[in-house]
Design goal:
By secondary structure, the chain is of the alpha+beta class. The chain has helices at residues 4-9, 16-23, 35-43, 66-86, 116-126, 162-171, 198-202, 206-215, and strands at residues 28-30, 50-51, 95-105, 108-109, 112-113, 130-140, 146-157, 177-178, 191-195. The chain has one domain (15-215): Maf protein, CATH 3.90.950.10. One of its GO terms (biological process) is nucleotide metabolic process.
Length: 228
C-alpha cells in the first residue's frame, strides 16, 4: 500500500483552468474601441477590464493581399496594446485580444470608409457581386505568447440601385466600417447569400475568439458574469 507521503506527492497537477480558478479571475483587455466587438464579447459573458484601442496605421501595403493585411494589422494592434498594458500595474499579465477586419473584392482591399465618396465607391463595387470578409484575431496570453487565427466569410450582395446607395449613404451606418457597410444594420437587407461566420462580418468571429481564449486557459465555462 502506498504511504501517505507518496499519496501527497502523487496528486494530479492542476490544469491551467484550475490554476486560474484558484488564483481568481484573470484580467482581460480588448485592444479595440469598437462597440460591435464589445457587444459580441458580452454575448459570451465576457466583460473586458479595460479597452485599449490601438493607434496603428491601417493603410494596406503596396501589393499586400487581404489575408496578410488582416494578420499584420491584428498583430500590430496586439503589440500596441501590450505596450500600453506594460505601463499599467493593474493590467500586467492580462489576456489581450486584438482584431482587424478586411473586406475584399478579389485581391482588392476596400477601405474603412470615412468619406461619402469612399462609401459610394465601395457600395458600387459590392453591388451584385461576391466579396470576402477576413477578420484576424490575435491573442496575447499572460505569459506574452501570441496566438493568431484568421476567419473568412463569403458574402454576396444584391444588385443595388442608385436609390439604395443614396439611402444607405444617408443613414451614416457606413462610417468607419470596413468595406463601407455594417451588416448588423440596414445593409443586412443587401445580403443575398453568406457562407461562414456572421459575427466575423460584424467584426469579431465569436466562436473562434472564445475557443482561442478557452484554449489558453481563460475561464470561459464558468463565465465572467458569475465570477468574483
Amino acid at each position: 500500500m502506498p504511504s501517505d507521503r507518496f499519496r501527497a506527492h502523487s496528486r494530479p497537477i492542476p490544469s491551467s483552468q484550475q490554476k486560474i480558478r484558484m488564483l481568481g479571475r484573470p484580467k482581460f483587455v480588448l485592444a479595440s474601441g469598437s462597440p460591435r466587438r464589445l457587444s459580441l464579447l458580452n454575448q459570451a459573458g465576457i466583460e473586458p477590464d479595460a479597452l485599449r484601442p490601438a493607434d496603428v496605421d491601417e493603410t494596406p501595403r503596396r501589393g499586400e493581399l487581404p489575408r496578410a493585411c488582416a494578420n499584420r494589422l491584428a498583430r500590430a494592434k496586439a503589440d500596441a496594446a501590450l505596450k500600453s498594458v506594460h505601463l499599467d500595474d493593474e493590467l500586467r499579465g492580462a489576456f489581450i485580444l486584438a482584431a482587424d477586419t478586411v473586406v475584399a473584392v478579389g485581391r482588392r482591399i476596400l477601405p474603412k470608409a470615412n468619406l461619402v465618396d469612399e462609401a459610394s465607391q465601395c457600395l458600387r463595387m459590392l453591388s451584385g457581386r461576391n466579396h470576402r470578409v477576413y477578420t484576424a484575431i490575435c491573442l496575447v496570453t499572460p505569459k506574452e505568447a501570441f496566438r493568431q487565427r484568421l476567419v473568412e466569410t463569403r458574402v454576396r450582395f444584391k444588385r443595388l440601385s442608385e436609390d439604395d446607395i443614396q439611402a444607405y449613404i444617408g443613414s451614416g451606418e457606413w462610417r468607419g466600417k470596413a468595406g463601407g457597410y455594417a451588416v448588423q444594420g440596414i445593409a443586412g437587407s443587401f445580403v443575398v447569400k453568406m457562407v461562414g461566420s456572421y459575427s466575423n462580418v460584424v467584426g469579431l468571429p465569436l466562436y473562434e475568439s472564445v475557443t482561442l481564449l478557452g484554449g489558453e486557459g481563460f475561464p470561459i465555462r464558468f463565465g465572467w458574469l458569475n465570477a468574483s
